[in-house]
């Protein structure tokens, strides 16, 4: 049975097996390759997307669970060509190195700001568990604090 | 007969669009003999070159190095633009194609000694010919800036500027000496006339390439030594960057593989029927050492490969284990090294480090479209020409019939260096089996963790001697697992220093892992010098410093790191600082770690301070990022990561058992650079080696517990009650 889902504001009908992880539906069926495959076991967070504004690791999230949901991927964060404040902070602080984990990292941080208006170091440590092999953590933290200092949730 | 040629590359539009390539050979600048000019330069306007100036006044720098997050494409563009006097806002960067003209050889400069200036161009030309013949376009060894940048890009930029000035002088009817370049224009101050680079480019290209362009005085730099944003960042925050895994072709199929779990093993048999019955599956492909499922989506391929129960042989290595390898190391090291008989104090210690995986965040991927007489490959590699050769060999094709397009790498760290292209070979073979349909092979994380070219495990056995004043008179070691002159070097004035390699071979596949042999030996030697300091009853920083009177660069870096960390201020119980210093890839890095250990043994790395002498810094911001990243990368290895072997195969499977640190574990990091008169040093790797010993030395300071075996997680740290 086809699944109806809104992705980055656009309605889609997916007629693929319901156990297909959202990650592969996004990447291979819809061509939204900004969301990355890292581990396939929900350990690294490279595949993080928002499902109804909650951060979800899409590599183990079957599409049967997104029927009727709103999904936002890295491609859907910018509004009318203006980058999301988290994306802009990532440029300002030159966070990415290889960049492969950063789609998931950025989406996870947008969810962090939905949970905490001005995340503290403890909030960051408890919430952000994405792996970055290049080691950009110092700048990830700095960028989050820069957003918080600029107004936090209202800004993000 | 369809061969891929450079003309075909241009014809695909990569350099098309009215561009005119300025005749600046990227290799050697005596154009009559040494510059490499394409046969068709007159018709295409392209000479072999790194610099393209277009009528819109943009300078495009074609960089013969990959981008894997290290930022050297931007740094190399800065080096060329600096010498050209280009307006930085009018500079673009593009990765050079995987064609012979862009073979790079400056790695030889980076690792070699200083070449006398009068032989420099001949040396560069010679190594270029070798690189071209050998098919090398490598990014590794922290060489891009210190090799290609210093000896190539800077010179190319300076030569281009002289050619543009010559063109302007001719146009203005004045002498070249009256003209100068600034902000992508050539100005003639006396007459007030000026012309843009874009306006002058086609005339400039008619001049021969100067053989000896004059480089700028570093004190006049306006682009280098500043922080410039990287060109690739935006595409990496909006999801638009196309890595190897993101590349698609019309009608492309997807492949998943299972590879012989013991390296060298062969596929014995596989019943393909379970997979063939599954949705979307096109074919089960049997390969020499693997079985692949090709399907209409990666998820279908992934599900189907899991349904197979292939039988592989173990190549006779089924008895190999971590224990057997270290037992062989232990035996090969033999007795404790000899030390002077009359020493006041004798110190001995064994150290061990495990195999490590690179664990790039993007798993290995290769897309192949194989036709009867030619093939195209898309992948992310650190050496496109070597990967092209690997694909050609796997396909049994002449290398000229294989075109390889390199894509941004989701991490490299040495995993994608030359001669590590098992994934390219597998992808090519699967593509051949499915010819002419294109196939994208995507490795699972399990494939990646279990089929790496691992950082070699290693072991060292040290003995040292102190005289009655606590001064070291000997520091000797036997080591197994690999080493070289750079990695075992100790910068300390100790009369009798020796490091002897002992052979203890094993069948585990190894390779270069960020900082190569320095990660093992940095831990060994900087742990041991710390043990000598404590045995002498001396402060570990002062002990080291007082042995560096003939090593001023080491001493300055050590002192700077100590000052950054407020080394001499007292700390509460349970806290400690540790210091370590290494030189690798031409760069000296001193690091101080400040740790807290709870009474139960819980370890927290609070701060790391790094003082770095790489001679001079090109892009201050990316340079800092590489040091920060190197420290985090090294911390994962120090604290958590290990690859273990049982029955000849890798035990760890994925990120739950091959562990790396998270943001909660990451310390505050402070980085400072020391400008010295040394040759430019590398930056991608040198921050890695000191961090493990800095941390274990800090643990000792905090607890009295000496960790001699990594990772630290295996070692109980509960504080000693003294």
Structure in words:
The complex is a heterodimer of chains A (156) and B (722). Chain A is built from five helices and five strands. Chain A has 156 residues and is α+β, with helices and mostly antiparallel strands. In chain A, strand 1 and strand 2 (10-14) form a beta hairpin. The model of chain A has no long low-confidence stretch (mean pLDDT 96). The N and C termini of chain B lie far apart (79 Å). Chain B has three domains: 18-237, Aldehyde Oxidoreductase, domain 4; 244-315 and 364-442, Aldehyde Oxidoreductase, domain 4 (2-Layer Sandwich); 458-714, Aldehyde oxidase/xanthine dehydrogenase, molybdopterin binding domain (Aldehyde Oxidoreductase, domain 4), CATH 3.30.365.10. The chains are: A alpha+beta (156), B alpha+beta (722).
Query: Greatest chain-chain interface?
Result: A-B, 59 and 62 residues
Distance between the termini of chain B: 79 Å
Structural class of chain B: alpha+beta
Find the CATH superfamily of the largest domain in chain A: Beta-grasp domain
Spans of at least 5 consecutive residues with low confidence of chain B: 5-20, 22-48
The helix fraction of chain B, in percent, is 25-40%
Tally of alpha and pi helices of chain B: 20
Helix content of chain A: 25-40%
Tell me the strand percentage band of chain B: 15-25%
Give the second-level CATH assignment, the architecture of the largest domain in chain B: 2-Layer Sandwich
Shape of chain A: globular
For the largest beta-sheet of chain B, the strand count, sense and barrel status come to: 7 strands, mixed
């Amino acid at each position: 049975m086809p699944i109806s889902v809104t992705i980055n504001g656009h309605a889609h009908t997916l007629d693929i097996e319901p156990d297909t992880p959202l990650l592969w539906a996004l990447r291979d069926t819809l061509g939204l390759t900004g969301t990355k495959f890292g581990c396939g076991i929900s350990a690294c967070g490279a595949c993080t997307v928002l499902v109804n504004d909650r951060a979800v690791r899409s590599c183990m999230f079957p599409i049967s669970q997104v029927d009727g949901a709103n999904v936002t991927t890295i491609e859907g964060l910018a509004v009318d060509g203006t980058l999301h404040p988290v994306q802009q902070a990532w440029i300002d602080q030159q966070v990415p190195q290889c960049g492969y984990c950063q789609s998931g990292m950025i989406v996870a941080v947008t969810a962090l700001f939905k949970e905490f208006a001005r995340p503290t170091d403890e909030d960051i440590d408890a919430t952000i568990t994405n792996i970055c092999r290049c080691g950009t953590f110092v700048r990830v933290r700095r960028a989050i604090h820069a957003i918080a200092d600029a107004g936090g949730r209202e800004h993000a | 007969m369809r061969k891929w040629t450079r003309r075909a590359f241009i014809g695909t539009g990569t350099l098309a669009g009215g561009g005119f390539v300025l005749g600046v050979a990227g290799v050697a600048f005596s154009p009559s003999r040494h510059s490499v000019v394409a046969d068709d330069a007159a018709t295409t306007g392209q000479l072999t070159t790194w610099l393209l100036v277009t009528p819109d006044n943009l300078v495009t720098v074609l960089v013969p190095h990959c981008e894997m997050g290290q930022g050297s494409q931007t740094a190399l563009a800065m080096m060329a633009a600096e010498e050209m006097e280009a307006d930085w806002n009018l500079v673009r960067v593009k990765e050079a194609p995987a064609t012979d003209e862009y073979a790079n050889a400056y790695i030889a400069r980076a690792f070699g000694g200083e070449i006398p200036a009068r032989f420099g161009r001949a040396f560069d030309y010679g190594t270029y010919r070798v690189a071209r013949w050998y098919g090398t376009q490598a990014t590794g060894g922290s060489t891009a800036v210190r090799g290609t940048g210093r000896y190539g890009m800077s010179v190319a930029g300076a030569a281009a500027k002289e050619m543009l000035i010559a063109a302007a002088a001719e146009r203005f009817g004045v002498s070249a000496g009256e003209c100068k370049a600034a902000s992508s224009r050539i100005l003639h101050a006396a007459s007030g006339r000026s012309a843009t680079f874009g306006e002058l480019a086609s005339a400039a290209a008619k001049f021969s390439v100067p053989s000896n362009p004059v480089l700028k005085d570093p004190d006049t730099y306006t682009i280098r030594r500043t922080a410039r944003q990287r060109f690739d960042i935006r595409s990496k925050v909006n999801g638009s960057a196309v890595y190897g895994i993101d590349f698609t072709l019309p009608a492309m199929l997807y492949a998943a593989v299972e590879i012989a779990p013991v390296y060298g093993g062969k596929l014995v048999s596989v019943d393909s029927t379970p997979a063939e019955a599954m949705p979307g599956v096109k074919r089960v492909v049997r390969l020499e050492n693997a079985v692949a499922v090709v399907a209409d989506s990666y998820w279908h391929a992934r599900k189907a490969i899991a349904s197979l129960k292939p039988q592989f042989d173990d190549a006779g290595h089924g008895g190999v284990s971590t224990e057997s390898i270290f037992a062989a190391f232990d035996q090969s090291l033999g007795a404790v090294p000899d030390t002077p008989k009359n020493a006041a104090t004798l110190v001995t210690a064994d150290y061990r480090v495990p195999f490590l995986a690179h664990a790039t965040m993007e798993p290995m991927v290769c897309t192949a479209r194989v036709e009867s007489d030619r093939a195209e490959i898309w992948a992310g590699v650190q050496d496109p020409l070597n990967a092209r050769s690997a694909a050609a060999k796997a396909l049994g094709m002449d290398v000229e019939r294989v075109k390889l397009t390199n894509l941004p790498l989701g991490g490299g760290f040495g995993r994608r260096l030359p001669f590590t292209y098992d994934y390219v070979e597998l992808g090519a073979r699967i593509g051949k089996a499915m010819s002419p349909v294109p196939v994208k092979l995507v490795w699972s994380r399990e494939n990646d963790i279990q089929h790496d070219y691992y950082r070699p495990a290693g072991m060292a056995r040290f003995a040292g001697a102190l005289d009655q004043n606590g001064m070291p008179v000997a520091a000797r070691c036997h080591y197994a697992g690999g080493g070289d002159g750079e990695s075992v070097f100790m910068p300390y004035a100790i009369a009798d220093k020796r490091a002897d390699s002992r052979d203890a071979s094993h069948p585990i596949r190894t390779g270069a892992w960020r900082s190569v042999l320095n990660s093992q030996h940095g831990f060994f030697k900087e742990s041991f010098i710390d043990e000598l300091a404590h045995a002498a009853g001396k402060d570990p920083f002062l002990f080291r410093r007082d042995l560096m009177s003939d090593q001023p660069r080491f001493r300055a870096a050590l002192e700077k790191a100590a000052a950054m960390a407020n080394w001499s201020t007292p700390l509460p119980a349970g806290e400690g600082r540790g210091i370590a210093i290494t030189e690798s890839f031409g760069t000296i890095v001193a690091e101080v770690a400040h740790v807290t250990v709870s009474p139960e043994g819980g370890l927290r790395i609070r701060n790391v301070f790094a003082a770095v002498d790489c001679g001079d810094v090109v892009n201050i911001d990316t340079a800092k990022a590489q040091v920060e990243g190197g420290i985090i990368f090294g911390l994962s290895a120090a604290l958590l990561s290990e690859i273990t072997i049982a029955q000849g195969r890798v035990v760890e499977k994925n990120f739950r058992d091959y562990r790396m640190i998270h943001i909660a574990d990451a310390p505050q990091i402070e980085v400072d650079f020391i400008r010295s008169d040394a040759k430019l040093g590398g930056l991608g790797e040198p921050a890695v080696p000191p961090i493990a010993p800095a941390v274990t030395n800090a643990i000792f300071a905090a607890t009295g517990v000496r960790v001699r075996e990594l990772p630290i997680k295996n070692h109980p740290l509960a504080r000693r009650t003294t």
